[in-house]
Amino acid sequence: MTCKEIRAHLQGDNLAAVNPLCESAALSEHIAKCGECSRLVEEQKELARCLLLLREGTPAMPTSLDAAALADYRTYISERPQSTTAVPGVGRTGLLGVFRWPATAAFAVIAVGAVLLFISGQPSSVDRVSNEGRSVMAPLPATSTNSRPAAPEPVRIKPNSIARSAKRAIPAVPVALPENWSSSGFQGLMYCDQLSCPGAMDVIRVQLPSAAVAFGPTSSKASDFVYADVLVGPDGIARGIRVVE
Amino acid sequence: MTDRVESRSDAELLKLSMAGDENAFLLLYEQLKAPIFRYAFYMTGSQTGAEEVVQEVFIALLKSGNRFKPTQGDLAGFAFGIARNLIRRIRKRESVTEALPGDEALERKSRLRPGAEDLSAQVIRDQGVERVRTAIASLPDHYRQVIVLCDLCELTYAEAASRLHCAVGTIRSRLNRAHAMLAQKLKQTKKPQPELRASGTEECLI
């Protein structure tokens, strides 16, 4: 046996293999001559002996530990949340799972309906306005844009939802009005003053029963209609009115 | 019922235990308690600590048993992983609050059984055990783990590799290095034995 063989056997092998190795005649013969291998084998034997001592010194598991573990188990089982003991799919989590998909589908349908309603909100607004105000929306005459004074692009204040719905309901052309807009033929409405409307306003042409326009030119027939321009502020509130014809 | 439980795998026993089957829990406990206790004892160096680890491991198994996947290893490996984390936590905690030094000494004294064997031999043996234990405790963690698993818990290389989630070759090389370091430490700490007088009385120093 050579030094290399002995080292290869000792290195990376379990210490349990040391003792059989030590008993072999070839090794005894070698270590009698080689001091280095003798020292190495003695070191390994000492280590194996120490570890054996340590293994033998392991205390036995106390029986009280078994009882304590069992008591812990019973406590855990009795105190655990009910959801973990329930049959899957029937407990609280299970019910949520059962109703999740129908609820999601219903929500999706409602959301799609709301979006469609929002997009196609124009007819419904017109109907509402015509029913409440008993007015009929008249399309703007082709010349109406020409009849308006050419004005620069107005500075628009962020419109609120009312103004947006008003613009959707009827075709409106934003105009920039002169400082004193009442001088352009518009009659201010009594609840509105100039100061309360700092931004650009929209002009909406509507067709009204002549009887409804008390301040306009009187018509011979009560059933006649008149066209009027209504000034609507960015907040959706009418500021002024001008009877066109 | 017990016969049917006995034929089940560890994973199934765990499921049954979690569902409240006490027989399944007892079987699982019997299978795992000894190796976990020994591992915890050698890693913590304290019986009380080992007992605490065993109790905590089984509670943690019940609580986090859903995370166990049989495809990723056996249940013993999973339990060892829990034990390793608990031991790390205990060591961290005990580094803050050191135990009273008298406790372990008293415990050792209580284990001495005068009359059963030569008292001085037992004392010398206990000192030797303590020396080895101290030397193992001073090793870096990954070397200590392989010494404890392979030499003290007597697991095979393959089992140790599965517990530590590494290759068998890694276990071999670590073990070899750990043996060398341990032998070196033991040599350093080995005190020369005092020469005892064979007979006679103490000399008068006056």
Give the arrangement of secondary structure elements.
The complex is a heterodimer of chains A (245) and B (206).
Chain A lengths: L2 H8 L7 H6 L1 H9 L1 H22 L6 H17 L2 H4 L6 H28 L1 H13 L10 H4 L13 H9 L2 E4 L11 E2 L12 E9 L15 E8 L5 E6 L2
Antiparallel strand pairs in A: 1-3, 2-5, 3-4, 4-5
Helix pairs in contact in A: 1-4, 3-4, 8-10
Chain B lengths: L1 H5 L3 H10 L2 H23 L2 H17 L11 H22 L4 H11 L7 H19 L3 H12 L4 H8 L3 H22 L17
Helix pairs in contact in B: 2-3, 3-4, 3-5, 3-8, 4-5, 7-10, 8-10, 9-10
Structural account:
The complex is a heterodimer of chains A (245) and B (206). Chain A contains 10 helices and 5 strands, in the order ααααααααααβββββ. By secondary structure, chain A is α+β, with helices and mostly antiparallel strands. Chain A has a 5-stranded antiparallel beta sheet with strand order 1-3-4-5-2, covered by helices on one side. Helices cover 72% and strands 0% of the residues of chain B. Chain B has 10 helices and no strands. Chain B has helices at 2-6, 10-19, 22-44, 47-63, 75-96, 101-111, 119-137, 141-152, 157-164, 168-189. In chain B, helix 9 (157-164) packs across helix 10 (168-189). Chain B is globular. The mean pLDDT of chain B is 79. Chain A binds chain B through residues 11-12, 14-15, 43-44, 46-47, 50-51, 53-55, 57-59, 61-62, 65-66, 68-70, 72-74, 76-77, 84-85, and chain B through 17-20, 22, 25-26, 29, 33-34, 37-38, 41-42, 47, 51, 54-55, 58-59, 62-63, 111, 125-126, 128-129, 131-133, 136, 147, 150-152, 154, 157, 172-173, 175-176, 179, 182-183, 186-187.
